[in-house]
Amino acid sequence: MQIKHTPPIIKALNAPVFKLPESYILSNDIQVWGFHDDSQEITRIEIVLDSGKWEESVPEMSHGVAKLFKSGTNSLSAFQMSASIDHLGSTIKAYAGYHGFTIVLYTLRKNILPSLELLNDCLQDNIFPESEFENYIRNTLSKLLIQEEKTEFLAEKTFRNALFGPVHPYGYSPDKQWIDRLTLQEIKDYFLNQVQNKKPTIYISGSYDNNEIQILEQIFGQKEYSDSSSARQHIVKSSSQQIFEVYKSGSVQSSLIVGKRSINKTHPDFARLSLTNVIFGGYFGSRLMLNIREEKGYTYGIYSALQTYRHDANIFIQTETSNEYIRPCIEEIKIEINKLQQELISDSELSQAKNYLLGKYLSRMDGAFSQMETFKNYQIEGLNILSFNNFAKTIQAVTKQDIIEMAQKYLGFEDMYQVTAGS
Amino acid sequence: MSHIQFEKRNLKNGLTVIHHLDTNTPFVVVNALYKVGAKHEQSTKTGFAHLFEHLMFEGTPDVPYFDGPLQESGGENNAFTNNDYTNYYDIVPDINAEIPFWLEADRMTQLNINAQSLKLQKKVVIEEFKENYINPPYGDIQHILRSMLYQKHPYQWPTIGKDIQHIQKATLDDVKRFYQQYYAPNNCILVIGGNLQQDTAFEWAEKWFGQIPPTMIPEHHLPIEAVQTETRTFTHYADVPQSMIIIAFLMPGRLEDGYFEADLVTDILSSGQSSRFYQKLVKERKLFSEIEAYISGSIDTGMFVVEGRLHDNVDIHEAEDAIWHEIFKLQEEGIAEMEIEKVKNQMVTYMKFSDVSLLNKTINLAYYELLGNINLINEEEQEYEKINAESTQSFCNEFLNKHQSNTLYYLSSSCK
Question: What is the pLDDT of residues B361-384, one digit of tens each?
C-alpha cells in the first residue's frame, strides 16, 4: 500500500545565533557564567582550571590528580568523602582534558551548599594518602591491560604518537612506562600549582538564582590568587615513518586509522573544511558510509573527523573491519578523496550536508546544559563564542567549488599516516 | 517532583499515539517503538529482529534513501533493538516536524525488500557482531551467561544473535514475513515529543498513519523460566589478560515485586566509591581491579549479575568467597536505612538529570506504554521511595542464594 499525500516540503535552516550566558564576578574576580533552566530542580556546576594535560611536566600527571581528587582530606577519609557526596545524591568528578582541568558537580538544587562544601574541602585540603595513590596505580595498570587488548586503542595510540610525538600532550596515550614512573610527589605538585592555586572559571547551569550565586561567593569568592598564566611550550615531533602495522594476535578484525595534522578553529578555512568533512565521512549520509558500509558492506561503520585543539588539529578516517577488507577499504578511501578533489558535488548533496551541520549547531545550543557545554568548550579551546555564529553563517555560504578547494588543500592522501592494528 | 505531561490516543487501526509538549527546545522527536524484539525469534534464527532493524533503513520506492530527507531537514535518526522491542527515533528541528511522520509512515507501508539489500546488511551485521562480540576481550560473556541462566525463555540469546551462522542463513522470505507480521500500526507505539502543539501532532498522526491497515500480529506465549533449583557453574578459557568471575541469578521481571529492590541492591553493592564492593573488595582486600553488580532490566524474568575482574595472582576461589561474603551480609544483617537512603537519593538525582533530555523522555514514554502502564513514568520515583530495609533483605534472601546461582569462571588461558 502507498500513502497518497504529497511529501511535506523541507525547510532550510537559518544559521543559529548563540545566546550569551549570564555573567557574575565574585569579589576575588573569579568569573562565573550561567545558563538557566528551571524545569527540573537540578544544577550542574563546573570549576575549570586553565591547565589540563598541557601543563604536565610528565605524561599522566593530570589524569592521576583527577582520579585522586576525592582521595581524602584532613577531616574526611576517602571513604567518608564519597559516602557524604553519595548520600546527598550528588556526583563530583574531576577530569583532565588537553587544556582544562574540570571538576564537575551534579546535584539537586537543594543540596548545592553541602555538596560544594565537600567539593571545596577536596580542592583546598586534599592530602593524597599513599595507600590511595597505590590503589590508583594498581587499578590504572590493570585497566590498561584490557585497553591494550583492543585494536582500536592500539591504532589510536600509534596514530597520535606518530602525529605529535610520544610525549606531546596531544600525542601520548596511557602507557605503562608513564604510569610506572609517576610519583606521589608529582601528583601533589601538579595539584598544588595547576589545580588548587590556579584561579578557576565557574560555569553554572540548570536551576539557580541569586542565592546560589551567593553560595558560590561564600565558598569560592574569598581566596586570593596570584597571576599564574602559563607559557609552557610543547614541540610537535611528527614521525618520519608514515605506515604502521601493529600486530595483535588473534584478532578477527583490524582497526584502521588514516589521517594527518590539520587546521583548528582559529583558521579562516575551518568552517568550510568542517562541512567538507561532513560530506566526506562526518555523518550517516557521508561518501565513506554510503560507499564502504552501504554499498560494499565492509564495515559496521566508517567515519572521518576533524579534531581541533587550542594549538593544533588533526583530521582522520577510522574504521573496524575484517582483516581481508583492510586493503579494499584503503583503496576506497583514496577513491573517495580523489572524487571530492576533482568532481563538483550536486546541489542536493551540498544542501543536505549544510542542513545537517546547521542542525548539529542548533543542537549544541538546545537547553541550558548543552549551551553551557558548548560555551565552556569554546573558552577552553581559547575561542570567543561569537566565532560559533560566524561558523554557522559561513557554512550557509559554502559553494561547490569550496568543497573541491578544501579537499585539495586538506585531504591529500600522500602525506597521511596510515595505521592498522590487528593480525 | 517533576511531572511529565502527556496525552494518549488510539487510532482506529490500532496505532497508539502519545504526545508530550516541551517548548524549551527547538527540536521535535518522533519515536516509533515496534513490539517485537529478540525474544520473539525462533531459536534457530536468532539475531533476526536486529538484522531487520538494519533493513528498515534501506529505503522505499518514494524515499530511496531513508536518512536523506532527515539530514536535509537538519535532523538525525537511529534505532536500537533489544530482547523486548525495537525502537526507531528521528530528531528534527521543529520547522521540519512533519518530515518524520511522512518517513515513518512510508517505511511502515512500503519498505523496499530485496536480495541485494539483505545480502549487504548481513555483511554489515556480521562486521558488527565481530566488532562488539568477538574482537574485544570478554566480548562473549553475554552469550555464555544467557545460555546458562535461561533454559527455556528466549532471553537465552543476546540481541545480536547466538551465532554468525544464523545471520548468514536469513532468507528473503523470512524478511518479508517478519515485515508483514510485525511492522503494522497495531504493533507500534508512536510518541511525538518536543516543540509541536498537541492538535497538530494528532492531526499529522492521523493524516500519515490513519489509513494504514492493521494486520494479525502473531501471538507469542513465551515460556516462563522456572525457578532455578540447582547450582550451575561453567569454566571458559580465553585469550584475555586477566580472569573474571561472574555470578548471576534470575530475578523478577520489570513489573514484578522485587524489581526495584534488585535495582537498589546493585547500587548498594557497586554504585560509586562508597559502595560495598569498591570499599571491601577493590580497596581493602585488593582482589579485583573492577567489580560491578547490575540488572538486565528486561520485561520478563531478568538477570541479576555480579561481574568482577581479578588482579593477577588472586585465587579465583578466594575472590568468589569474598563476593559471597558480601551477599551473605546482605541476607543476614540487612541494609541500614541510612545506606538505603543514600542510593535512593542517587537514584532521584539520576532520574531528574535523565529527564532533561527530550529524546530520553520520548523513548521512555513509548517504553512505559509498552509495559502496559504509561503512568509509571511519573510513579516510579514513589516506587523507589517505598523500598526499605525489610524489603531489600527479603529480596536478597529469596533470590541471591547459592542453589540458584550461575557462576562463570572466565579464565585467562595463561592460567591454564
Answer: 999 999 999 999 999 999 999 999
Domains along chain B with CATH numbers: 7-209 (3.30.830.10), 232-415 (3.30.830.10)
User: Quick one: pLDDT band at residue A423, thresholds 50, 70, 90?
Assistant: confident
Whole-model pTM?
Answer: 0.95
Confidence of residue A69 (pLDDT cuts 50, 70, 90): very high
Paired sense of beta strands A101-108 and A91-96, if any: antiparallel
Q: How far is A212 from chain B (nearest CA, A)?
A: 18
The HSE-up count of residue B217 (CA atoms within 13 Å, CB side) is: 19
- B262/chain A closest Cα distance in angstroms: 19
Task: Check B273 against A367: CB less than 8 A apart.
Answer: no
> Are residues B356 and A352, on separate chains, in Cβ contact within 8 Å?
no
Cβ-based contacts of B134 with chain A (< 8 Å): 252-253
- Find the Cα–Cα–Cα–Cα dihedral B383, B389, B393, B396, rounded to 10°: 50
Residue A88 has its nearest CB partner, among B72, B130, B345, at B345
Q: Using pLDDT thresholds of 50, 70 and 90, give the confidence band for residue B245.
A: very high
Any chain B CB within 8 A of the CB of A363? yes
pLDDT for res A1 = 64
The one catalytic residue in B41, B53, B225, B261 is: B53
Q: Is B336 on the interface with A (CB under 8 A)?
A: no
Q: Measured between CB atoms, does A341 come within 8 Å of chain B? A: no
For residue A55, give the nearest of A225, A228, A203, A174 by alpha carbon: A228
Is B381 one of the catalytic residues?
no
Test the A interface: residue of B274, B362, B378, B410 with most A CBs within 10 Å: B274
Which of A325, A318, A342, A341 lies closest to A418, judged by CA?
A: A318
Q: Which residues of A touch B28 (CB under 8 A)?
A: none
Q: Which residues of B touch A10 (CB under 8 A)?
A: 69, 72-73, 96, 99
Say if residues B412 and B238 touch (Cβ distance below 8 Å).
Answer: yes
pLDDT above 60 for A264: yes
Mean pLDDT, residues B263-283: 96
Is the pLDDT reported for residue A189 higher than 60? yes
- ipTM greater than cut 0.90: yes
Distance, in Å, from the CA atom of A34 to the CA atom of A20, rounded to the nearest integer, reads 9
- Chain A residues whose CB is inside 8 A of the B21 CB are none
Question: Is A108's CB within 8 Å of B347's CB?
Answer: no
Three-class SS of chain A: CCCCCCCCCCCCCCCCCCCCCEEEECCCCCEEEEEECCCCCEEEEEEEECCHHHHCCCCCHHHHHHHCCCCEECCCEHHHHHHHHHHCCCEEEEEECCCCEEEEEEEEHHHHHHHHHHHHHHHHHECCCHHHHHHHHHHHHHHHHHHCCCHHHHHHHHHHHHHHCCCCCCCCCCCHHHHHHCCHHHHHHHHHHHHHCCCCEEEEEECCCHHHHHHHHHHHCCCCCCCCCCCCCCCCCCCCCCEEEEECCCCCEEEEEEEEECCCCCCCCHHHHHHHHHHHHHCCCCHHHHHHHCCCCCEEEEEEEEEECCCCEEEEEEEEEEHHHHHHHHHHHHHHHHHHHHCCCCHHHHHHHHHHHHHHHHHCCCCHHHHHHHHHHHHHCCCCCHHHHHHHHHHHHCCHHHHHHHHHHHCCCCCCEEEEEEC
- State residue A3's pLDDT score: 67
Contact A87 B208 (CB under 8 A): no
Q: Is the pLDDT of residue B1 over 60?
A: no
Query: Chain B contact for A362, CB < 8 A?
Result: yes
Which member of A13, A367, A369 has the closest CB to residue B74? A13
**Confidence grade of residue B2 (pLDDT, cut at 50, 70, 90):** low
